[in-house]
Design a protein that fits this description.
alpha/beta; Rossmann fold; 32 helices; membrane; transmembrane
Length: 992
């Protein structure tokens, strides 16, 4: 069931929450940094220049001038010989270290990706990396030394485009996402008041006091941003909004305009608030000796546009949008708002806040955990895995493979487990999971058909049903129906195009995608196996644990992956029941390092032997059968300094091998961390260098325990608390127990005892009643509304339906309503409202565990009556597109097993008296509802064999072989046929 779209804001409409980054302390270069840089320079000078110089002066060239191998072998081995050999080794070590220095310097200055690995250079390259980093620290910020996503799609060439409208349309791992709160009315009001205050202050200030700042070109990996400008010159990065408002939509020297606070270009001019300070600022029109005449003239011209010309800005934005639309059709998610749009957004924001407040109040009243309701992909994965586990337990029990137990009903959850199950039902979005899986596999299949490799995908954004893949680098034009997104590093698939994809046998291309949280209406999935290094997570231990549990649970149960290994270290031993084949737990970091060192070597060798550059090339084309399953490591506890260095070495080449690392840290300082994130106590996931501030997806400890309890209860090996034969609701099957309302669900849907509702609401009322009849323990109102309206519904519509449902069901003769709410708020039906499924269960229970146990005649009558009730599959005539909530139920698996048990019991009843034809009749009736139950066919063979009609038995064997198709007959059925009809193989061949 898809989740309803609810606002995640917890604040009132008058005080919107701030979605911009929290103040981040920018590390200034201290005297110690310069000292470290000096010593690093000296060390590099000594190692790169001093070593070869000393060797040349003190030892000279160690190799002989003539190549005479035989003479070498005849010469005596002297001390000089050893010195020459040692000199050669030192020369080789120097050459390797120099190569490491060159590789590290090139990577640091280019700012592209992680440094390449020099073969066999391990410690040498690590030393070179540290020395180069210390040297460059005085010329670049610490952020410039960490490979990340902050500049994806922001190359200088791309920044020269005449319009940025396309860049405003789709999300990315950029700071532009932090500005979406500016679209809310409250934030706009706040900014307007700040601008007005600035205007008032400026009215009494001389024109010569106005200050301007010119955006600086990139330095290494560092790019100017309004946040850093505000932090340097205003003392608070959060004041970047004031700079944005002063310059919004004003024409820049290159002819473009500022429309997003994160989209600024080198050479642009920014007017600064009057209290700005700093040597980089320029006061105009006063002369500034350090500013060229050209720049002075540009600032003079820019100052003339101080009225901001909002109308012109809107037109420019429209033109840009049109230009973008001619290139690629994108959803207009983030156009520059005009006044009418602002009013609409304010109203929508207030409505969303009111809905969220109502949802929060309801959640508090009924105890549903909001963390799972707001995690649709995680909820869908958990719900699907739980359903598979329960069906497996049911089949195991029916086949008598678990301690001889036979049961139809799994344990009913209670307490927190019941609340979590309801939250999963409310929040799950199986349709979203299905579309994501089909879209990714369809993309892989299309690329394979074109003999193109899979591009490296760092992240995926799901926004309003559309899917945006963020690539590590441009990879050309995507295959149809994919389109280019806001730039060459984004591939876009609209939801309408995704719905056209069908199932394909292609391997899952990006199984390492996992949800981290949401930003406004966009959900971020990070591809852990593609990270060029370690992903670090800092914050309080409890907050980190909630993130780790959410990531582990979604990876273990998601629907867009095939095989996968997830190693949990320092947490999660209790999570293994979620997916025992995927999840494994290690006790400590030492065991992890030993395991990963061996696997890293093995994967490198396997890739080399297969001739692949990375696991991505192994997931398409002829080699895709190998699947190249990812291995994702989740290390919750901070490793020691020594272990952290070893992890960094392993992670340096991990993305190519399909290995990902998510490591917790208390300090936020972790060697080899490519992407650094922080989880706050308010549930925010921050990554300032990536421009991210997400509402984090969490799985708190209490919900984690309840989820695990659901899976443990469904485990067929858990013991006497497994599936039982006692129905959740027993019906009085005597004449005195005639119900007031009787619904026939087994077969076509019919209701006896109620008038058919008029109008189009009839189908909705019927579906609601069916859901309540299948859950006699009670249904949460939010579960009911999510089942009926998977795309969401408002509270008033749901309450109106419940009122109509109460009125339709009416009251019993004593005046009590037939639809009530229990103490927990869950909706329950009166005992006077029953279904034929309730009667079917009660008849079988009474025949096998009640009066029929000691009375053969009663048992035969009850079993016969039960089999007569079976008119086909459950809700056989349900309309297409409705009753989708049945995919989360196990009743579709329970009903065939129950009918098969009834047929087997009635067959045994007749065979006791040698009534083979009656037994065959009962078995054939059961087969019509449970055609795949092997037990029925085996009993049908035995009953047919008892008639001594060989031709009839041969015909039945041929029918069975035909049903088996290419799979053939089950082994036990084949063995039974060999016993009853040794010539069956020849007869089937002749018939074929």
């Amino acid at each position: 069931m898809a989740r309803r779209s609810t606002s995640s804001s917890t604040g009132s409409s008058a005080s919107p929450r701030n979605r911009t980054p929290q103040p981040v302390s920018v590390r200034r270069r201290s005297f110690g940094d310069f000292v470290k840089a000096f010593f690093a320079f000296v060390a590099l000078l000594v190692l790169v220049i001093g070593v070869p110089g000393a060797l040349a002066v003190l030892v000279g060239w160690p190799l002989p001038s003539e190549f005479t191998p035989m003479d070498w072998l005849k010469q005596d081995v002297t001390v000089g010989t050893f010195l020459h050999i040692l000199t050669v080794v030192v020369w080789c070590a120097w050459a390797q270290f120099t190569a490491c220095v060159l590789v590290e310097v090139k990577a640091a200055l280019s700012g592209v990706g992680v440094p390449g690995r020099v073969p066999g250079a391990g410690p040498s390259q690590l030393l070179a990396r540290q020395l180069v980093a210390a040297l460059l620290l005085v010329g670049a910020t610490a952020a410039s030394l960490t490979p990340g996503l902050s500049q994806l799609g922001q190359s200088l060439e791309g920044n020269q485009k005449p319009t940025v409208a396309a860049a405003q349309q789709t999300p990315g791992l950029f700071a532009q996402q932090q500005e979406q709160a500016a679209s809310t009315a409250a934030a706009l009001a706040e900014q307007a008041s700040q601008a007005a205050a600035h205007a008032d202050a400026g009215a009494g200030t001389a024109k010569g006091d106005t200050k301007y700042y010119r955006i600086q070109p990139p330095e290494g990996r560092h790019h100017d941003s309004l946040w850093e400008i505000a932090d340097r010159h205003l003392g608070d990065g959060r004041r970047y909004k004031e700079i944005f408002q002063l310059n919004k939509d004003r024409v820049q020297p290159d002819g473009s305009r500022l429309s997003e606070a994160s989209l600024i270009r080198p050479g642009w001019i920014m007017e600064m608030p009057g209290d700005a300070r700093g040597g980089e600022l320029v006061e105009m029109p006063d002369e500034a000796p350090n500013v060229s005449q050209q720049v002075q003239q540009q600032i003079h011209d820019y100052a003339k546009t101080g009225d901001h010309a909002q109308g012109g800005g809107g037109q420019q934005g429209g033109a840009g949008a049109g230009a973008g639309a001619s290139h690629v059709s994108l959803p207009q998610q983030r156009p520059a708002p005009d006044q009418h749009q602002q009013q609409n957004r304010q109203q929508n924001s207030q409505q969303q806040n009111q809905q969220h407040a109502g949802s929060a109040q309801e959640s508090s009243a009924f105890g549903l955990p909001q963390a799972l309701i707001g995690a649709p992909l995680l909820a869908a994965g958990l719900l699907g895995a739980l359903g598979r586990r329960r069906r497996h337990a049911l089949w195991q029990s029916a086949l008598g493979a678990v301690g001889g137990r036979r049961g139809m009903e799994p344990p009913t959850p209670t307490g927190d487990a019941l609340d979590v199950q309801d939250a999963l039902l409310v929040g799950a979005d199986p349709e979203g999971v299905r579309l994501l899986d089909r879209s990714l596999r369809g993309l892989a299949a299309s690329l394979a058909a074109e003999s193109r490799p899979l591009p490296t995908v760092y992240a995926a954004w799901m926004s309003n049903g559309d899917l945006h893949l963020q690539l590590a680098q441009p990879s050309g034009k995507p295959p149809a129906p994919w389109q280019l997104g806001q730039d060459q590093t984004f591939w876009l698939l609209a939801r309408s195009d995704a719905e056209q994809y069908g199932d394909t046998d292609t391997a899952a291309p990006y199984p390492g995608l996992v949800s981290l949280g949401t930003m406004d209406d966009s959900r971020l999935l990070l591809n852990l196996e593609a990270v060029p290094g370690i992903v670090s997570l800092s914050g309080r231990e409890a907050d980190r644990a909630a993130v780790f549990a959410s990531v582990a649970a979604e990876l273990a149960t998601n629907g867009w992956s095939d095989r996968m290994t997830i190693t949990l270290v320092g947490f999660g031993e209790d999570l293994t029941p979620l997916a025992p084949n995927r999840l494994r737990h290690l006790d400590d970091t030492e065991a992890l390092l030993e395991t990963m060192e061996a696997e890293t070597r093995q994967r490198r060798g396997a890739l080399g032997a297969a001739g692949h550059d990375s696991v991505l090339t192994g997931r398409t084309g002829p080699a895709q059968h190998t699947r190249w399953a990812p291995h994702l490591v989740l290390l919750a506890a901070q490793p020691s300094a020594e272990d952290a260095v070893k992890l960094a070495e392993l992670a340096a080449d991990a993305s190519r091998l399909g290995i990902g690392y998510l490591v917790g840290t208390e300090t936020g300082d972790l060697p080899g961390a490519a992407w650094e994130m922080e989880i706050t106590g308010q549930g925010k996931l921050l990554a300032p260098l990536l421009g991210l501030e997400l509402d984090a997806q969490l799985l708190p400890a209490a919900q984690q325990q309840a989820v695990v309890e659901l899976f443990v209860q469904a485990d067929p090996d858990q013991g006497p608390d497994g599936p039982t034969n006692t129905p959740p609701f027993l019906v009085d099957i005597s004449e005195q127990g005639r119900p007031a309302v009787y619904a026939r669900l087994v077969g076509p849907y019919e209701i006896i005892g109620l008038e058919t509702p008029d109008g189009e609401r009839s189908a909705l009322l019927h579906e609601a009643l069916a859901l309540l009849l299948l859950h006699r323990e009670g249904v949460h109102p939010r579960v009911l509304s999510s089942a009926l309206w998977p795309r969401g519904v408002t509270d008033d519509v749901r309450e109106a339906l419940l009122e109509r449902l109460r009125a339709w069901l009416g009251t019993d003769p004593d005046g009590s309503p037939r639809l009530t709410a229990d103490a927990s708020g869950r909706l329950t039906l009166a005992k006077s409202v029953v279904s034929d499924l309730d009667v079917l269960r009660s008849l079988y229970h009474e025949a096998t565990q009640g009066r029929g146990v000691d009375n053969r005649a009663v048992r035969g009558r009850l079993l016969t009556d039960a089999l007569v009730l079976v008119r086909g599959p459950l809700l056989a005539d349900r309309p297409e597109g409705r009753y989708r909530w049945l995919t989360h139920e196990i009743v579709d698996a329970q009903l065939p097993l129950l009918v098969a048990d009834i047929g087997l019991a009635l067959s045994a009843f007749h065979l006791e008296k040698d009534r083979a034809e009656k037994a065959i009749e009962a078995l054939n009736a059961a087969v019509r509802t449970a055609p795949d139950d092997e037990r029925l066919w085996n009993e049908l063979l035995r009953a047919t064999h008892s008639t001594d009609d060989t031709d009839r038995l041969q015909a039945l064997a041929a029918d069975l072989v035909g049903r088996g198709g290419a799979r053939g007959l089950p082994p036990r059925t084949e063995a039974l046929l060999d016993e009853l009809l040794p010539t069956w193989r020849g007869g089937v061949t002749a018939a074929g």
